[in-house]
Every structure is written in structure tokens, then in C-alpha cells.
Amino acid sequence: MDKETSLEQLMLQSKKVFKNCFQREAKGIVSCPGRINILGEHTDYMGGLSLPAAISRYTLISYAPLKEKKFKFWSQSHGEFWETDFSLAKRPTKNWQLFAYGALSIVKGLLEDRPNDLPTIEGACFSIIGNIPLGKGLSSSASLELCLLNSLYDLFSLKVDPMNSIHYARRIENEFLGVPSGLLDQFACQFSDRNKIQIVDFKNLSMKQEHHQGLADWKWVCIDSGVKRTLGSSEYPKRVQQCEQALATIKEQRLEVSHYRDISEADLSYLDHNQTLKSRMSHMIGENLRTLQGFDALVKGDIPLLGKLLEQSHHSLRDLFEVSTNELDFLKSVATKHPACAGSRIMGGGFGGCTLNLVKADKIPDFLNQVQSVYSQEFHLKGQGFIFDLVDGVKLQQPSLQQPQ
Q1: Are 355 and 347 a contacting pair, CB within 8 Å?
Q2: Residues carrying an active site annotation
Q3: Cβ-based neighbours of 204, under 8 Å, separated by 6 or more
Q4: Structural domains in the chain?
């Protein structure tokens, strides 16, 4: 079980790291959480529904303006500096530096498009720290993107609509990292409210939030299977292609269908000749319905129903979308045998990674001990556990005074 560090402790650590790196006090701090996805898996790229939520793990950036014409970045996790000027003439090669390069490029473009928003600084320095477990599907990338962008907005006194900001964040991944990601992560990291649950509709990029109930005595627990997504790079695009093929096939038979969300259970008969495509669409229809039901369950505080929906989602991802593994199925099976677990499912793209579990808060040590012990005996893998609360999205914790040093 990992040890959680509070946001307040992280802020103090961020200030200290910044001062050690740049021998000056930070003028601003931005924090942005990671995220889980409660329900709605493999639905975003089909214009479906999801229930993403921000979690109590963060990226933090402390920053200050500089008199010199340099933008200097320190990454605590990589233990190295990177710097550039605003010409951005030399593109870096390391991934973490490309995030900073991409954010600077986008903000530079905003300033060029808005001649009235003249820059008030010529350089700045930034320190990046965080405690989001890397490579576990908890969206450390979107968290970093929004931290970088918001620190630059503040330094340049830019007013940016939050909906535009999540598109800018995705551009960093798409254009500068070459990752064809959607907007699920950015929605969660930007808009989450610790007291509300949000349902995101990817058909029209709309969002609805309502106060959730019933979670006071429960926590979300991710258990890492220790299996890297070795098949994910090849199988993920294959799933996307299969879904596109299924939609095209149904369109040929029923002209009224123009979008995945137009497909009904009756339309699945058009795929009887290809059980794989039929299974993919069956998952999509069921997962969208489960997401709607999960939203209602959280609004009403119906934890037993939410647990059942988590179970159904796992079975659908395992049997219909075929993205699970023996390790993930085993973890889910052991978890749901524990009386303190309301429900469990695979989380993320699949082919490895984590399970998501809703567990009674006071029983978590016993739950983790039992699940990890049995899992270790079966697969000789650790099965590390991470415990989360739901939190607010990106925040300007301490705005810059814009006084170059």
C-alpha cells in the first residue's frame, strides 16, 4: 500500500524544490490531480458516455518570472533541467521536455492571435513534482499538461476558457507527443468537483454534474496487476478499427444510423455474420447504459447498485471487448470475494494495468492484505495498491505576482 501525501504537504515540498533549484521564492503554484474512470470504458472514441473523476494524487508546478529571456524547467522525477527561449527553435527529444515545449508553443500561439494580450514577462522558471503513480493509467500526462498550461496562463495574464484549455492539453499529446488520445483525462483533471459526480457525453462534448451521496465510508482502491500493457499498442487500434467496421456495416443496412449512439440492440442482428463485431457493439451499448445507471446510483447513494454495475462492466470488457488478462480477472475475482468490496473491474484500456475497487474505508488494510497475498501466491507478482479520495480539478493555488527576479 502506497503512502498518500496531502496536497498541503506537496505544496510545501514544491516550494522547497523550486527554491533549491532556482535560489528564489516561487511566485505561483498550480496543482492538477490524476483521475480514475468509474464507468464508461472504451466508449469515448465512439462518442459514448463516461464517469471520470479526479483523485487525490497530483502534479504540482511552482514558478516565477525571470528577467532573462529563458524558460527553465526542472523535473523532479527525471532529476534534470531543460531550458529554451521563446523562439522555440530547438525541439527537445525527451518526452517530459516535449510536454513543456508543447505548452509553450500553444501559449505562444495564443499570444500571437491576441495582439491585445501582450506578454508581460520574457522568461520564467518552473519546477515539476508529483505523486501520481506513473504508467498505471491514472492520467499523469493530462495532469502535467494542464499544470503547464495554467502556470503559463497565469504568468502571461491570459484568460482562457476551461473548455478550450482541455483541447489545448490534448493538442500537446496529439501534436507534440504523437499520442492519439481523446478528452476523457482532460475533462476529469479540469472539471472535477470533490462533492459532485460528472457524466461526460463525448458525442457533443457536454458534461453534467450532480452531488454524489453514499461515498463517505468508502474509498476507491486501484490494484496494479504488475502486467505491462504489452498487447495494448497493437490491440487498442484494432478495437477502434473493429468498432468503425461495425458501424459502417450497420449503416449500410439502416440508413437512419449516422452515429454509434443511433445503434440499438435490434441493429446488432445486422452483425450476426461476424460475432466479433457484434460483441464490440454489444459492449458499447451496455457500457453506455451502465454509465447512465452508475451516475444515477451515485446521485442517489445506491452503493450496492454501483457495485453490480462495476461487476457487469468487467464482464463485458472481458467477454465482449476482450481486453482483460488472466491476472486482471483473478484480481477482480479475489477482490469481490472480500465482504468489504462493493464491486471491482478492470480500469483503462486493458491488456494489463489496474483494477478499480470500491472498498469500505475501515477495511482497506485487511482487503489489500488478503488480495495481495493470494495474488502473489498465484502469479508471483506484487499487486501494489493505491488508495484515493475524489478531489477537485486543476487549481491555481498561489497566483503569480509577475515580478521578475
Answers
A1: yes
A2: 185
A3: none
A4: 7-212+394-398 (3.30.230.10), 218-388 (3.30.70.890)
